[in-house]
Amino acid sequence: MKKIILPLALLFGLVGTANAFDGDAEAGKAKSATCAACHGPDGNSVVTIYPKLAGQHAEYLYKQLTDYKLGMTTGGKEGRANAIMYGMVAALSDQDMQDLAAYFSSQRITSGTTPEEVIEVGQKLYRGGDADRGIPACIACHGPRGAGTSLAGFPRIGFQNADYVKATLEEFRAGTRANDMNGMMRDVAKKLTDDDIKILSQYLGGLH
Fold this sequence. Notes:
Elements: H1 25-30, H2 36-39, H3 58-73, H4 83-89, H5 94-105, H6 119-128, H7 139-142, H8 162-174, H9 184-189, H10 194-206
């Protein structure tokens, strides 16, 4: 199958941080207590509807926090909409967000698993996309292990919680998440079927 190699931030959208990042991981650890209930003390959430933050690129995490704050101040018209996260970011300063991002980025993400029955089809979609449907290969931007790249703004997606991945792709497809640059992920996600989303979300857990 011919691969479509196009810029793709599979889950979280392209990141462009205007401010220089200057987070302090130790300071972030001290500020992270309220995050632990959903994301775990080290960013490895065991509640699978919430994302693992451990090992994620710091600049990406900072971008998401600032987008939540923008969503809060604009009533969801800009940034990223999430009522729970609005309450979490309301009292955070810019430095707080940078410190939290630095802390969770410094932690090691726990590995996950991929159900045997989705490995073959998941690998085919992740590595090769689907030329007939105009779906780009995820590997082009996120790499063979789903590590992404900080400089280009592509997030780490390998070992991520499957339930969170599924919900995120569905949000992009429905347009309820709109903090992707130039609508890139919304354009891609609307081409994914329910089965595609289920397979990709489960495949990324172990990322064979």
